[in-house]
Amino acid sequence: MSKLYVGSEVGQLRRVLLNRPERALTHLTPSNCHELLFDDVLAVEAAGEEHDVFANTLRSQDVEVLLLHDLLVETLAVPPAREWLLNTQISDFRYGPTFARDFRHYLSEMDNEHLATIFLGGLAYSELPIKTSSILPKMHSRLDFVIEPLPNHLFTRDTSCWVYGGVSLNPMMMPARQRETNHLRAIYHWHPVFAGQDFIKYFGDEDLHYDNANIEGGDVLVIGNGAVLVGMSERTTVQGVENLAAQLFKHQQATEVIAINLPKHRSCMHLDTVMTHMDIDTFSVYPEIMRDDLETWRLTPNGQGCMNVDQVPSYKHAIEEALNLDALKIITTGGDSYEAEREQWNDANNVLTVKPGVVISYERNVYTNEKYDKAGIEVLTIPGNELGRGRGGARCMSCPIERDSI
């Protein structure tokens, strides 16, 4: 039996969780896409076809691909999981007790395939044939969502992240994404691939309001050798980082966490949109953001259940020390400053490493891919004309659940 363990960013990738974009994208419109955290409306069929190329590229590299929709259907087949998800996603607090009861009853009669599709893809009031005495539907128009679609579930990287021998079930910053975490909580608890397996849940698996402790997987790089690199970004707070670090140290899964203070704006929403790990000593970096003077701290366990926090001169120096390297190789975004800014926006720096020195990247980022190639990195390109509109590349769209150490 293979082990649920992610030992690095660049060791051989063995198993990964993806989510093929389907019904959720059909609900994206120019008037609601920004609310749902998308900058644009995608062509649904084309996005699905591009995603299939991505999944098949991974399979061609001996990576086992798990699809979120399938896992959710199989999880809903477990009665306590189904009950928990219906009660959690259709809660009395979310809908009021009368409507929640009537709505849960309607959903509980669906088959698992249909229910998974609704949970992921959303439902409008106009599609809901139930009679209820609740005021709630009377306050909404037909086209309002009774369950909002989750188009960002495409980016499986953020919702949960595997770090060495465990997983963080991330309390997401944006309300538009918070329901995603419950799907992963149910899958990791009840799905046969995960149920009864030996792994740690560091954070985020309790029915709590995590307040200011937000963390998203796009900010978490498991660089190996017991080190974790984390960006404090638009979506990941200091409180989130310190809570995750405390749990990693408590379970003796990491020896240090390097925390970088990133600018808080959308173009560098997560650390992995401006920096990814491509080979043991090689990183791709967008230099406009990843300047040498970014404030950086090293968190280490102090042996008494607390942690030491030391500011360090630069993130590059901290990574070199953590990985015992003389010098990092940094490959910057390609092209002139206009082209580099465009390619970073189109996720040129957000590559997924499948094994040391082999990465998956959008084919549209020609200048940056050329630089990778010249630096000896093998680039497997995938189409991203539609997928890229969601502002996420191959790393964003993948959640490794099994990967070798370096």
- The geometry reads as globular
Instruction: Please give the radius of gyration in angstroms.
Output: 21 Å
Mean pLDDT over all positions: 93
Number of helices: 13
Residue share in helix: 25-40%
CATH class of the largest domain: Alpha Beta
Strand content: 15-25%
| The CATH topology of the largest domain | L-arginine/glycine Amidinotransferase, Chain A
Label the structural class. alpha/beta
Q: Low-confidence parts lasting 5 or more residues at pLDDT below 50?
A: none
| β-strand number | 20
Indicate the CATH architecture of the largest domain: 5-stranded Propeller
Query: For the record, what is the CATH homologous superfamily label of the largest domain?
Result: L-arginine/glycine Amidinotransferase, Chain A
The major β-sheet equals: 5 strands, mixed
Number of domains: 2
Q: Alpha-carbon distance between the termini? A: 21 Å
* Neighbour order of strands in the largest sheet: 9-10-11-14-15
